[in-house]
Amino acid sequence: MTSREDHLMDWLRDAHAMEQQAVTMLSALAGRIQNYPELKMKIEEHLSETKRQASQIESCIVRRGGDTSTVKDLMGKFVAMGQGMSGAFASDEIIKGSMAGYTFEHMEIAAYRTLIAASDAVGDPETSAVCARILGEEEAMASWLADNLPAVTAKFLSRDEAQGVEAKH
Ligand SMILES: [Fe+2]
């Protein structure tokens, strides 16, 4: 039987890998956006937060006696999504990228809710507090995207009609 401490360590490592993947995705996305300055700025802001989150999770892992040198392979879905966002984009890449970002935030939210419960279950209030802080940042990003996806979509559709096939991102 796997102990609850081992499960927590396992899930912290998953979260660390998830944040590293997020850094890759957000960098790729921000670097490609040209015509949506607010979205670009928000993604860059969340990229800085994400880098901090990765190191905060790493600190939790180390404090609990683990290390991050043997971080497990990412779950397939994260890899697939990262490839989708960093590879050849479709002409509507700004929409696909925004949707992927929104989806990814919700996976992060699910991960941190789980981590908070698991930290509480093993009696680790420090890890629980770190995860609660990060959860708040992921929720804020998800909520910003929810509020702004309609405007991004409307702008994309207008630009698409006005400019034909060029400069859609
Ligand atoms: Fe994150």
Topology summary:
Blueprint: H1 4-32, H2 37-63, H3 76-86, H4 93-122, H5 125-163
Helix pairs in contact: 1-2, 1-3, 1-4, 2-5, 3-4, 4-5
The structure holds fe (ii) ion.
The site of fe (ii) ion has 6 residues, from α1 and α2.
Describe the structure.
This protein has five helices and no strands. It has 169 residues and is mainly α. The chain has one domain: Ferritin (Up-down Bundle), CATH 1.20.1260. The radius of gyration is 18 Å and the shape is elongated. Bound molecules: fe (ii) ion (FE2). Fe (ii) ion binds next to α1 and α2. Fe (ii) ion (FE2) binds next to α1 and α2.
Number of discrete helical segments: 5
Mean pLDDT: 88
CATH architecture: Up-down Bundle
Number of strands: 0
Poorly predicted parts: 73-77
Biggest β-sheet description: none
Radius of gyration: 18 Å
Number of domains: 1
**Going by CATH, what is the homologous superfamily?**
Ferritin, core subunit, four-helix bundle
Q: Would you state the CATH class? A: Mainly Alpha
Q: Based on helices, strands and strand pairing, what is the structural class?
A: mainly alpha
Helix-strand pattern: HHHHH
CATH topology: Ferritin
Q: What percentage of amino acids are in beta strands?
A: under 5%
Bound molecules: fe (ii) ion
* Overall helicity: over 70%
Q: Shape, please?
A: elongated
Q: How widely separated are the two ends? A: 50 Å
